[in-house]
Amino acid sequence: MRDTVEAIPEAGAGRRLSWPWFLVVVVVYVGIIQGLGLLIGVDTGDSDSQFPTTASLVRNALIPIGASIAFGAAVVSWLGWWGEVLRYRAPVRRWVRWVPISMIAAAVIGLNYPHLADQSLSLVACLLLLGLFVGVGEELMFRGIGVHVFRRAGFTEGKVALCSSVVFGLVHISNAISQGPQALGQAAVVSTSGYFFYLCLRAGGVLVLPMLVHGLWDTSLISNLVGDKPQVSLGTLLIILLQVALIIVLLVRRRAIQPASPAVPA
Predict the structure, then answer these.
(1) What residue ranges do the domains of the chain occupy?
(2) Alpha-carbon distance values, 7 to 16, 91, 101 (Å)
């Protein structure tokens, strides 16, 4: 998926981070999450659920991801990129705004409300916090730092989207440590989701929007996996169908993302 118009890289302020060094940063980021998960995590191998208890959710996910957020924030502070990372100026046509709108709607509708009603208040609260952490942490690293690294390197918007999304997907292969070979398929799907989150960034012009969409998206998916007995809902099917529909739309309209010119209405 690529735009037909070349992006003009911004010189930007702050320190420089080349894309190979960004990959090193990503490796450290993954190491923090997986390392802490192995160090303090709760073994859930005897359960069908990914997060059967509040303690497992906190120790296997909240603490490691919270630490990765602190690391990402430290990197942005060291680079001096906060002003640049929190905003993104790359105009798109109006139809792209339906990407975040549809994803938010699907996530809210697809949340497994009956299943969550059977869980403890602490588990549900931690699930909501996990969604927030995932949205903030992953978007800060990949649509925040990553997108700007590739843009500063002179990549076109299409290549910025592709590279940041592929790296985002490859990172999830590390989940094979806890989830096995299925993490490979997950990485491919996540790469596609990464492209959608990139479009959310462009549609809104601020990093907060993909953080919100990503957080709601993951909360909806994980809402099926908490508690002693995971329970798949029709909402999961809705999310899958939307993802397929968005892939089809973007394949058809991938050359109609960038406005033809500033003078042409989006």
Answers:
(1) 19-256
(2) 19, 11, 25
